[in-house]
Amino acid sequence: MRVGFLAAEWQHNNGWAHYSTSLIQALQRQGIETQIITPRNTPLTELQSLHPLLPTVTPPDKHTLAQMAVQFSRIRSLLADCDIVHCTVEIYAPLAAAIATKRPLFTTIHGSYAHLPRIRRFPINRLYQWAFRQATLLCVSHYTEKVIQKIVPDSRTIVVNNGIDIERFAHLPVLENPPTRPTVITSGGVKARKGTLELVKAMAKVRGVLPDVQCIVMGSTSAEAHYVATVQQTIAELDLGDCVRLLGFVDENTLLAWYGAADVFVLPSMNNTWKFEGFGLATLEASAAGLPVIGTADCGAEDAIDHNRTGLLVNQANIDDELPQAIIHLLTDTADAKKMGQAGKEKAANQTWDFVADQMISVYKTQN
């Protein structure tokens, strides 16, 4: 079996890239032959089957469809010998559909960009509707599947959850100065979709019960400048300067060390206009590190968290009350927190990228 991919960058610096690289490497380990078309900003590599020809998506290029059209003939030629075409970035779906012709076509739907047939202007929106209908849509969560089925009602969908590299969490590094106070962490950047503001407000209530609590927020502070300013202002207004710390982007070693040092991981994802959490991979990674986790219902976290087993799901509509209560519970009921952390570790151990690759191969064969 030879699979041609229209993928993100061959690295792990964003969600699309991490998914594309992790999945393709796992498939290669299973003996699947691959031909990989990636964005022009892909780092140099010795991988001969990788061709950086696509417009960039992080950061987004202008006139993406026109740029794809320019490269159409060359990419079609490179994928001519492939039995299957798999598009792992929703933006490239029209190109994948045009190239696949009668071959089996798969497009991964991660989350917010399921809305492309709605948010793009006519006639581009119709082009994405057509492209999604040509493919079997591989949804990373049941919530993502529910969203795409509403947008493209006659689409063919299959759920294949994201995976993790379990070895990353086998031996967690130790912080140079480990915390001596109850510690909540989150990652993924300061963004409305990540619920950073809701977490900050919740910490004010948690501090009323646990005065020495701290919250460590990791991830980019540059994606949504106005929102970041609001978060910083709220921290100041609530006098949380000694409680909530925005670390910004941290390296891998620091991130893993905080996973090992924290008591609870919280990702209170919020549906924000057309944007939503497709899966919440950071939550499953926290489970792999043995942490009890908290997320929100009505998003992809419903697949990443087993409510009352590996962590807690709170309602977005009632987050102001439920989130601080959930954090306080896991910080004070250490027995329940430990039990959830262990259950989460077991869940994560069964959701490796190799397991995802096995599922994907079965899907390929079924639809071929």
Characterize the structure shown.
- The chain is of the alpha/beta class.
- The chain folds into 2 domains: 178 residues, Glycogen Phosphorylase B (Rossmann fold, 3-Layer(aba) Sandwich), CATH 3.40.50; 184 residues, Rossmann fold.
- Helices cover 42% and strands 16% of the residues.
- The protein is built from 15 helices and 13 strands.
- The protein has a 7-stranded parallel β-sheet, with helices on both faces. The chain has a 6-stranded parallel β-sheet with strand order 10-9-8-11-12-13, sandwiched between helices.
- It is globular, with a radius of gyration of 21 Å.
- The mean pLDDT is 96.
Key features of this structure:
368 residues; alpha/beta; Rossmann fold; six-stranded parallel β-sheet; 13 strands; 42% helix; 16% strand; globular
Number of individual domains:
2
Poorly predicted runs are: none
- The structural class is alpha/beta
Annotated CATH topology of the largest domain: Rossmann fold
Assigned CATH superfamily of the largest domain: Glycogen Phosphorylase B
- With strands numbered from the N-terminus, the spatial order across the biggest sheet is 3-2-1-4-5-6-7
Q: What is the percent of helical residues?
A: 40-55%
Task: Tell me what the CATH architecture of the largest domain is.
Answer: 3-Layer(aba) Sandwich
User: What is the N-to-C order of secondary-structure elements (H for helix, E for strand)?
Assistant: EHEEHHEHEHHEHEEHEHEHEHEHEHHH
Portion in strands = 15-25%
Rounded to an integer in angstroms, the radius of gyration calculated over CA atoms is 21 Å
Mean of residue pLDDT values? 96
Shape: globular
Main sheet summary: 7 strands, parallel
CATH class division of the largest domain: Alpha Beta
Counted by DSSP, the helix tally is: 15
**What is the end-to-end distance?**
10 Å
